[in-house]
Amino acid sequence: MPQTRKIHNDFIILLRKTFSHDPMGVTTKNVVKSLKGVATKNVLHDSKGGAHEKRSVTTLWPPHSLTREEPRTLNPCLEVRRKINVTTCGGFVNASSASIEFQLGGSIRADMRCVWIVQAPSSAQRFSLVASGLKETDGLYVTPLARAAPTQKLGTLGQNIILQSKSVLITLIVGHAPTLGFKMEYYASGSNVNPDITGVEILTTAKGNLTYPRNGGIYRPYETAVFPIAPSVPGQPTIRFTRMDLESDSLCAYDWIRIYNWFEDDYRQVARFCGNTIPTSATFQDGVGFVLFSSDSSVFKTGFDFQYE
Ligand SMILES: [Ca+2]
Fold this sequence. Notes:
Layout (H helix, E strand, L loop, with lengths): L2 H17 L64 E3 L4 E4 L2 E12 L4 E7 L2 E11 L6 E6 L7 E2 L6 E4 L3 E7 L5 E14 L6 E2 L7 E5 L11 E6 L8 E8 L10 E7 L4 E7 L8 E2 L5 E6 L8 E6 L1
Parallel strand pairs: 1-3, 2-4, 11-13
Antiparallel strand pairs: 3-10, 4-9, 5-8, 5-10, 6-7, 6-9, 12-19, 13-18, 14-17, 14-19, 15-16, 15-18
Bound molecules: calcium ion.
Calcium ion binds next to loops.
């Protein structure tokens, strides 16, 4: 390289070092912006702190004293944050957006059942499939818990499904042959509302039991508690209630329990009961179902127990 050219290049490098706006080498891409110089953590807007994922505090640069004031319209919590990514078979996510990535690049056993429940602080949610090795004989389904619309199959990449429901069940139904994994995402959509789920447990063991409320006492007003049963070893679980103590009325219109059984691409209600009535047992012949409990504004009892195997 000619000497003059080298001097020129060195000068350019010196200029860049001297006037760089990023002397720490920190890229601004993932920096959480702050409003009025207040440190902002990578927190989610979870009204109940339901998404338990721990996050580190994102480093701020430049220091607050050097941060120029941001436009007032910015929400300090909604700036760049890492999205929750669930990778287990089943789970509960309480956040405005998340991805569910199950065995992507790997295989899933035949007849597998997984249920995720997602809840966003909004009146609707949008779902899309990002990557999929699922076959035609498999299915990934979204079911609004509010039951305002039927279950829909999320089967095509790029497809968007919007459901008018604060909380949604996502059900994986694998056919009678092993298959490959997938990745899907959901986003809050619509107007802001308070979340509706007051209790949730996803039962994945081969057998088990549940008492609600979990710590005894009486249940609360306006409960919506949901308990999917989807054993991770495929089977046909039978559910039996062993104790019932709900407000009683002839139509079960106030406080009630419903049992839903997966059958032909949707959840079908197989029982609705209240008071002290112990219902007959129900078998989930296709390997998955759920219990839904709801209470109204007055008269509260001690709840219920059930077991399944
Ligand atoms: Ca009641």
